Amino acid sequence: MKYILFLSLPLYALDRLTKYLVIDSIDPDRPIIVLPNFFHLVNITNTGAAFGSFRNNNTFFIAISCVAAVLALILLLARPKSADARSIWLISNRWRDISLALLLAGVLGNLTDRLLYGHVIDFLLFDLHLPLAHPWPAFNVADSCICIAVIFFIIHSFRTEKKTPTPA
User: Fold this and answer.
1) 122 belongs to the catalytic site
2) Which residues contact 4 (CB under 8 A, 6 or more apart)?
3) Which domain, by its residues, includes 155?
4) Could you tell me if residue 152 is inside a domain?
5) Is 61 exposed, middle or buried (0-12, 13-18, 19+ CB in 10 A)?
6) How many Å apart are CA 1 and CA 76, to the nearest integer?
7) Per the domain annotation, does 56 fall within a domain?
8) What is the pTM of this model?
């Protein structure tokens, strides 16, 4: 529960606040140049998934987002019954819980956009001047949470010890 209260909800609120400010103050046809040739604030709509793929599938992404949010909540709120299992579980699953909390914040942020506007609002645009990142596709706080969640889950996967059965 602490991950939801102290990580998911504040990041969700930050995502909502930043998107509100973007809608209120950035014209879609007039980006704000923060650092010339590197970073712009934009107001771009995305009806698809990452990098604008699978466009115009809002209903599908709403359904997937609802399933992901429910699963993340269940996994975050589920706790083992015994004290021994709980102490081991808390230590070994901190990375997993952080990744689930980040995932929940990101999924809820983009789901809210899809339900309110029929698309996701992206506003951070970086130009890394690399062949595959010129410019990097625009993204938002929720997208960042989802990407960081994946990185943390990978870290958790490598940190988790594989229990092998001991021979009798």
Assistant:
1) yes
2) 73, 76, 77, 101, 104
3) 2-159
4) yes
5) buried
6) 7
7) yes
8) 0.85
Calpha distance 162→168 (Å, rounded): 18
> Does the structure show a pLDDT above 60 at 165?
no
3-state secondary structure of 149: helix
The amino acid at 48: G
24 catalytic? Reply is: no
Q: Which position among 15, 97, 113, 143 bears the catalytic label?
A: 143
Residue 63 has pLDDT above 80, yes or no: yes
How are strands ordered across the β-sheet holding 120-126?
A: 32-35, 39-46, 120-126
Q: Pull the structure tokens for residue 148.
A: 């960081």
Which of 15, 97, 113, 122 is labelled catalytic? 122
- 8: pLDDT confidence band, cut at 50, 70 and 90? very high
Count how many domains the chain has.
1
Asked if residue 165 belongs to a domain, the reply is no
User: Tens digits of per-residue pLDDT, 110-143?
Assistant: 999 999 999 999 999 999 998 888 899 999 999 9
- The total of other beta-carbon atoms located within 10 Å of residue 7's CB is 19
